[in-house]
Amino acid sequence: MKRHLISAADLTRDDALLVLDTAEEMARVADRPIKKLPTLRGRTVVNLFFEDSTRTRISFEAAAKRLSADVINFSAKGSSVSKGESLKDTALTLEAMGADAVVIRHHMSGAPHRLAYSDWIGGSVVNAGDGTHEHPTQALLDAFTMRRHLSGPGRDLAGRRITIVGDVLHSRVARSNVLLLGTLGAEVTLVAPPTLLPIGVEDWPCEVSYDLDAVLAKSDAVMMLRVQRERMNAAFFPTEREYSRRYGLDGLRMAALPEHAVVMHPGPMNRGMEITAEVADSPRCTAVEQVKNGVSIRMAVLYLLLGGAEPAVSAPAPARTEENNQA
Amino acid sequence: MGTIGSEPSRPVLEAPDIARVLTRIAHEIVERAKGADDVVLLGVPTRGVHLARRLADKLDEITGGKVPVGSLDITMYRDDLRLRPARALARTDIPADGVDGRLVVLVDDVLFSGRTIRAALDALGDIGRPRAVQLAVLVDRGHRELPIRADYVGKNIPTSLRETVKVHLTEEDGRDCVLLGVRDGSPADE
User: Fold this and answer.
1) Where are the strands (E) in A181-306, listed by range?
2) Mutant choice from A25, A313, A322 vs B, greatest count of B C-beta within 10 A
3) Can A8-134+294-306 and A136-289 be said to share one CATH topology?
4) Angstroms from A139 CA to nearest CA on chain B
5) Percent of chain A beyond pLDDT 90?
6) Where exactly are the structural domains of chain A?
7) Predicted ipTM?
């Protein structure tokens, strides 16, 4: 694995499977009476959040704490950033405090990349969402959730048909998912009004459709994206009502899905907009499970980046082939 | 499979020996535990798990019961994590009834520095509180670096640090045997 996790494209198929398999083991820790491992004792993980987030920050915090790392939460609001400090000066401050990993969320696409490849800090950088660019750990936890329902431990998602519906234009989740799911062999179809598809989407490793009903019947999983009102500075669709009638998932559409298919949502949900309450509360909706899996995935990522002298090597090597690799 | 020494490695235990040794250990466990009612076998991946399963079968034969068997991955409890790239994890599988109040027998293939077992004891402490913990190993090759000993030993094989002890098991390597060889390179990279 690379030292930083900036994009889902940083992960090879072996890397991605290693993260998913490691997360399977991390998930078992959650079922134990003592939900803690000593593995990252003495390591410091900084959560550097320039943008509002509850579940991602809490998820990373829980993951780091379960691995016994020290966690420092840094949010831009009420910090020196609101006094005009630059990303560089913030980074140098964190470096001086001895951060082994920086988990960064930023409203600007590319900020984590800048932080990682700038020499400002020596630790690993994990992208927890940057602008409309990427959110690789979300894609990993989505793939983990899909794998649990559609294939199984140790396997990839070859041949599984995943439909991603909604505001692809503003969605870092969609971009990371398209890249990662492609790496894992899934066939991805994006469904969105033409105004909510990014320029250049035809070059992405996926299909594009404007007709939700046409693709539902052959989907193994449907991922509903949140309509990001806060990024909507233009008229992307006539009315919310029209959007939800054409691209929202209601009970009727859910019934058109194959028996085994699951409905996913990265949260937070706009009930009544992209997803009806009926669907959101149905047992086929994995939204809550995705949150739970997020902690396991982030534990896996932090462990694989920080758990050794250097990030894990994903060449499929058995863990202990003989006694003499140390006791 | 690891380093092959300049001299060919030679078998010190063959398949029938391993079978006999496991039968004896099973009997010893039953004898010391006065039955195997509260015994839980936990193998240390990879080969310890196979050995634990075999021991469980033998215990079932002897006692007519069903001994719970599981696996205990110690990777995240190792004391040398920072000496190498992060390692892949192996499966931890604790039997449904847990380990609280039970007699846990840890099973591993080779006892060497004792660091694996130290890690296993730490891992076990986060899972529950057994009545007692014992250790069964197929081979004890000496060179302990910690105050740890085995309760059941298949075979003591005095070795030098330049030698390697490799356990092959059918489930993993296609055949049963224990090979004694010589490593190239210095023993310091142990």
Assistant:
1) 187-191, 207-209, 221-224, 262-264
2) A322
3) yes
4) 21
5) 76
6) 8-134+294-306, 136-289
7) 0.87
Q: What is the pLDDT of residues A85-123, one digit of tens each?
A: 889 998 998 899 899 999 999 999 999 999 999 989 999
Q: Residue A237 has what pLDDT? A: 86
Superfamily of domain A136-289: Aspartate/ornithine carbamoyltransferase (3.40.50.1370)
Mutate to test the interface with A, among B44, B81, B89 (most CBs of A within 10 A): B89
Q: What is the pTM of this model?
A: 0.91
- Report whether pLDDT(A203) > 60: yes
3-state secondary structure of A163: strand
Residue B70 confidence (pLDDT) above 50: yes
* Number of structural domains chain B divides into: 1
Cα dist from A251 to A218, A275, B61, whole Å: 17, 9, 55
> Which CATH architecture fits A8-134+294-306?
3-Layer(aba) Sandwich (3.40)
Nearest C-alpha of chain A: how many angstroms from B86?
4
Higher-pLDDT residue of A152 and B44 is: B44
The answer to whether A311 contacts B81, with C-beta atoms less than 8 Å apart, is no
Contact A18 B166 (CB under 8 A): no
Stretch A235-252: mean pLDDT: 90
**CATH code of the domain in which B147 resides:** 3.40.50.2020
Q: Annotated catalytic sites of A, by residue?
A: 55-56, 83, 105, 135
Distance CA A269, CA B21 (A): 60
Contact criterion met (CB below 8 Å) for B43 and B51: yes
d(CA A150, CA A159): 10
Q: Is residue B176 part of a domain?
A: no
B58 lies in a domain?
A: yes
Q: A303 touching B, CB under 8 A?
A: yes
* Residues A284-300 pLDDT 10s: 999 999 999 999 999 99
Q: Which residues span the domain enclosing B98?
A: 16-78+89-159
- The helix (H) or strand (E) run that includes residue A102 is strand A101-106
